[in-house]
Amino acid sequence: MAIVNEAAAPAVRHHPSRSGFGLRAEVHDEIKNDFDSVLVQLIKAAGGTHQVGRLTFRLAQEFGFCYGVDHALDLAYETHVRFPDRRVYLTGEIIHNPTVNEQLAKMGYSFLRPGDDVTADDIVLIPAFGAPTHELERLKNVGCLLVDTTCGSVVHVWKRVEKYAREGFTAIIHGKYDHEETEATRSRTTLYEGGKFLVVRDRAQAQDVCDYIEGRGDRERFLAKYAAVATPGFDPDRDLERVGLANQTTMLSSESLEIADMVRRAMERRYGPDELKARFRSFDTICSATQERQDAILQLIEEPLDLVIVVGGYNSSNTEHLCEIASERLPTYHINAPECLVSATEIRHKPAFSKEEATTQNWLPAGNITIGITAGASTPNKVVGDCIERIAALAGAA
């Protein structure tokens, strides 16, 4: 069952079960009421196209909540029903969506902060991204009850990097170093003596690693740039001799695959094809839902569109990548709530490859236009539907 008494639990490398409390049917209607959209259901039933006045909306074939998010919310709502009088904490945002996290706050969930006096009588939810091993160990020592909502795709990556560490390979992780998922993943290497990791953010950083493997790097310059995103005491001369590739599950799939191939070719050039099997490991750990949503936006932007709206949390990695993909072809606006749609002439959004919200004028063209709509894997359909209704109202088409 999903609740684990950590006082009697095995070591944190053995992942707790996440099967729930048998209350899924009881919480189904509440979750549906909080996060579903009748409008989105109707548009899907109509083949993904919705026309209102001068506007035509086209939905991506795959968008919004994935299985992992559905599972996390089931557990959160079941916990609320099962333990209505217990104090319940979250170690961090359960998923990267403001609407969802605000709803859990209304239900009484609070974020676990440093100094909070957690006791064995409390319940702590582990988010869908997972949690670092040191945090799980601390909670185990407290003896509180854990409800683990970690996505199965993330657990799959953990098993991969743990295997690398056991076999003496450094885990090269394509991801964002400070993202909760990557933080949890890199911590899994520390379960084994001598386990090592190095996080690379993009192709350019991966190229630095390849250059060093092939003998073109400067040790001091490399450590100055990458020591902060690697295992303490990381030695590139020693720790890049045997490497295994993994990735944050929500990264851009094409980039992860390219980085793995870059490193494989560098190892082959450095050590020769006969040594490759003993020195290189790789496994595609992009989750299927991330891949499906990336494939769907690629398909959507092949259609005749005037612009694309991407709906999702600004700190959602998989949503960011949807925006990046679409922006290569069309004007694209990543918004996190209907309120970002200020007027028919003004929109607040986070541009592709930017960390800050921006304001753009004259974003909605005049005349008959077609708008592509997609959303990240942590975005409720309700927010998508509300955004469509807001756009229609602003255009005077409601």
Number of strands: 16
Structural class assignment = alpha/beta
- What's the CATH architecture of the largest domain? 3-Layer(aba) Sandwich
Number of helices: 15
Helix content: 40-55%
Tell me the distance between the termini: 47 Å
Counted up, domains total 3
Work out the strand percent: 15-25%
Radius of gyration: 23 Å
Tell me, briefly, the overall form: globular
* Average of pLDDT: 93
CATH class of the largest domain: Alpha Beta
Biggest sheet details: 5 strands, mixed
Ranges with pLDDT <50 over ≥5 residues? 1-17
- Lateral arrangement of strands in the main beta sheet: 1-7-6-4-5
CATH topology of the largest domain: Cobalt-precorrin-4 Transmethylase, domain 1
**What's the name of the CATH homologous superfamily of the largest domain?**
4-hydroxy-3-methylbut-2-enyl diphosphate reductase, catalytic domain
What does this structure look like?
This protein is an alpha/beta fold and 398 residues long. The protein has 3 domains: 3-28 and 67-149, 3-Layer(aba) Sandwich (Rossmann fold), CATH 3.40.50; 36-66 and 289-394, Cobalt-precorrin-4 Transmethylase, domain 1; 153-286, Cobalt-precorrin-4 Transmethylase, domain 1 (3-Layer(aba) Sandwich). Helix content is 41%, strand content 17%. It is built from 15 helices and 16 strands. It has helices at residues 24-35, 38-45, 67-82, 98-106, 133-142, 152-166, 180-187, 203-213, 219-226, 236-239, 253-271, 273-279, 288-300, 317-327, 381-394; strands spanning 3-5, 49-52, 55-59, 88-90, 110-111, 123-126, 145-148, 170-174, 197-200, 243-247, 280-282, 307-311, 332-335, 346-349, 358-361, 369-375. A 5-stranded mixed beta sheet has the order 1-7-6-4-5, covered by helices on one side. Strands 2-3-16-12-13 form a 5-stranded mixed beta sheet, sandwiched between helices. A 4-stranded parallel beta sheet has the order 9-8-10-11. Helix 11 (253-271) crosses helix 12 (273-279) and helix 13 (288-300) packs parallel to helix 14 (317-327). It is globular. 45% of the residues are buried.
